[in-house]
């Protein structure tokens, strides 16, 4: 079992360490995994890959994507401080998002690159889900992630 603890003493705000002293920096490790960094490259990558591909985390990520679809179907709430959602893009990518959600439920550690990319895309405030000015096509991005999950390769 991995024990996590806040590591303010190391000077990394919001960073956590695992029992072996390895620093977990979720976003940066996820970016490295999505780019295809080999799991054996460093212990932190392997630990992060095992964490994000655990059944609980994959289910949570799939639910988050499905929740995004639900929010996109509802009228916009102008009273919220949340990032605006590009509802039309999300709804246009619905079949791919649903397929990706299903693929996430089956993914193992070998699909860590795709799982990391799916998580990054969902959280990227400057990406195609939340930023109308983003030139990235959401359907294509989700298809690349799906290919990565199914083919166990880095996301291009």
Which secondary structure elements does this structure contain, and how are they paired or packed?
Blueprint: E1 5-6, E2 16-17, E3 23-24, H1 26-34, H2 43-52, H3 55-73, H4 87-92, H5 94-106, H6 112-123, H7 138-151
Antiparallel strand pairs: 1-2, 2-3
Helix pairs in contact: 1-2, 1-6, 3-5, 3-6, 5-7, 6-7
Question: What key attributes describe this structure?
Answer:
about 160 residues; mainly alpha; 3-stranded antiparallel sheet; 7 helices; disordered N terminus
Give an overview in words.
53% of the residues lie in helices and 4% in strands. With 156 residues, it is mainly α. The chain has one domain (5-151). A three-stranded antiparallel beta sheet has the order 1-2-3, covered by helices on one side. It is globular and about 45 Å long.
| Series of secondary-structure elements, N-terminal to C-terminal | EEEHHHHHHH
Helix fraction, binned, reads: 40-55%
Low-confidence stretches: 1-24
What number of structural domains do the residues give?
Answer: 1
Mean pLDDT: 82
Name the structural class: mainly alpha
Strand content: under 5%
Shape: globular
Tell how many strands the DSSP assignment holds: 3
Taking Cα atoms only, what radius of gyration do you get, to the nearest Å? 16 Å
